[in-house]
Design a protein that fits this description.
Layout: E1 13-20, E2 23-31, E3 39-47, H1 56-70, E4 75-81, H2 85-93, E5 97-105, E6 108-116
Parallel strand pairs: 3-4
Antiparallel strand pairs: 1-2, 2-3, 4-6, 5-6
Length: about 120
């Protein structure tokens, strides 16, 4: 939860909680201005298990993308683990495309995806 890319500090990292009344239904890890000033990097996005598969996640992603565009950002990048077809399909449904960049981390090989806003 404290991981940061090179050159970023804790001031660049934000956690957004999405609520339905008092219930936390999703959380998004956001790193601003990475890897470029006009790009946001999403470290992780998790939806509560009981809300999964009901369109909640893709709806929240749409709203977050609209808000980032309104704030002047031009793209969003994220990573998904290679060999995770469910995650890859979700992000493709949300309009994210593979960039052809792979990075190794302590969990395996991550594919970098991007979406222009």
């Amino acid at each position: 939860m404290a991981a940061l890319p090179p050159g970023k500090t804790s001031k660049d990292k934000h956690y957004l909680g999405f609520f339905d009344g008092e219930d936390l239904v999703a959380i998004l890890d956001v790193i601003t201005a990475y890897p470029k000033e006009d790009t946001v990097f999403w470290g992780f996005f998790m939806v509560a298990k009981e809300r999964s598969g009901k369109g909640v996640g893709s709806g929240l992603v749409r709203e977050a993308l609209q808000e980032l565009k309104a704030q002047g950002y031009s793209s969003v990048r994220l990573g998904t683990m290679k060999g995770n077809p469910q995650s890859k399909a979700f992000w493709a449904k949300c309009g994210f495309m593979e960039m052809g960049i792979e990075a190794r981390n302590d969990q395996g090989v991550m594919l970098v995806l991007s979406k222009e806003l």
